[in-house]
């Protein structure tokens, strides 16, 4: 297994980033990760106003996958996610969907033990570990780790969890995969800007698929295949993610356009991943039991 220290991190995904490691397809890689605030807040009274917003959403890596070439698909199977013993939750003025209705800022440190997030003495939430930031280098330029796009990035999709496989585009040689921003639990939408932000580690197995024409990013788990899309306009993100699913069903599964649309309308679910990043992210979940290739 290849281990990548959280001391090797990036704030933006780019072809210019120096690889933290080179690995072969089929390799297991353990990514140590910072929390989304890069460890800047350790106590509830640490001083929100002192946060350096240029130092948030660090992603560990990137790693170079030998043999990955532009046009390939990078497969990232999430084997396990480990989180630290406490996380942090924020809300406040100007943050998230309800930022206009809040005064000042609130920080809560929540213990994590016995498989539960202890939000308060009365409220204990089941652990639902997930990855907020996972992506490859874009075709050109650089994209901050806090921004989702075609390369992946800060999609904040709660289905990116243990057992799922994330499919990402290879836009540059080696793909340059980076991972960060773990959450101990988060609801669809992430309406207050944070989930339970937590440091930890992620173990994945990376592989390459050659000659796959997919509208990426995508997710596969035991029950569903999902297409994701991000845009500043939520309606456009919905349209894009649906169009990507129809493209998958027609081009990879052999359905006619008409059957693909009708079947998606009957069995698929359109869900919101997050509405608080510079671009909002939507996923379409299609049951694998109805795929022809299964």
* Helix count from the secondary structure assignment: 2
**Sheet/helix structural class:** mainly beta
User: Could you say which overall geometry the principal axes of the C-alpha atoms support?
Assistant: globular
Q: What string gives the helices and strands in order?
A: EEEEEEEEEEEEEEEEEEEEEHHEE
Fraction of residues in helix: under 10%
Tell me the span between the first and last alpha carbons.
Answer: 30 Å
Q: Residue-averaged pLDDT, rounded? A: 95
Rounded to an integer in angstroms, the radius of gyration calculated over CA atoms is: 19 Å
Proportion of beta-strand residues: 35-45%
Molecular structure report:
It is a single chain. The strands form four sheets. The chain has a nine-stranded mixed beta sheet with strand order 1-5-19-7-16-20-21-23-22. Strands 2, 4, 6, 12, 14, 15, 17 and 18 form an eight-stranded mixed beta sheet that branches. Strands 8-9-10-11 form a four-stranded antiparallel beta sheet, with no helix packed on it. The protein starts with a strand and ends in a 7-residue tail after the last strand. Strand 22 and strand 23 form a beta hairpin. The model has no long low-confidence stretch (mean pLDDT 95). It has helices at residues 234-251, 257-267; strands spanning 2-4, 9-10, 12-14, 21-23, 28-33, 59-65, 73-83, 86-92, 105-113, 116-118, 124-126, 130-135, 142-144, 148-149, 152-153, 165-169, 177-183, 197-198, 200-209, 218-220, 224-231, 269-274, 280-287. It has two helices and 23 strands. Helix 1 (234-251) crosses helix 2 (257-267). 10% of the residues lie in helices and 40% in strands. It has 294 residues and is mainly beta.
